[in-house]
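Task 17 of the worksheet. Students: predict the tertiary structure of the chain below and write it out as structure tokens. Keep your answer in the requested format; marks are given for formatting as well as content.
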Amino acid sequence: MPSVFVQGRPVASYPPLAPESRHGTVRRVTEVGEEVLHKPCRDVTEFGPDLAALVDDMFLTMYVAEGAGLAANQVGVGLRLFVYDCLDDVFVYDCLDDDGARHAGHIVNPVLEPLGPAGRRLLDEGEGCLSVPGAVMDVPRPDRAVVRGLDKDGAPLVVEGTGCFARCLAHETDHVNGHLCLDRLPTRERKAALRQSADRREEVLARRAARAARLTA
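Model answer:
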């Protein structure tokens, strides 16, 4: 079984950080309550250097924020796009798939395929969100996900994941549809997650600032 998949395809090797991040600029991560996070994003219709630069920025910002994935509206851009790098040392949890493989890449205009009851199993596990800094929530998600979309050059793309990587794919697709993982929680659990974030936010932001200094030095 290959240990790394990039854009859904196995590769022989891959650097610790996606190459795109070397060209990126760190952007501010939007937080719960900001309008851009709570409405559906627009389809990407223009492919070219501006989109490629956004992907670069998103990869670097994701690493600075210690995330496994990041959607464009999490950097204030209301486009249907997310990046991901599910490896074994992210901030909230180990995010490899069920076979222990790392997955990295980006998806433009992602669509999560519906799975019938026979093709999925719901797992209620801990999940964090860079836009709810410091909170970890138990969110039910299917243990398998298939996302169809495009790459930054407009070529068709299909990415399939299991386990924690499936959770990442579903989480990020939720983002471009204007939903946070908080929206999947009962009121009491949602309020508890927001309190947890309020208590930990400054610590998380300080850690991000320190990581940004290291990665951009």
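Marker's comment: The mean pLDDT is 92. DSSP finds three helices and nine strands in the chain.
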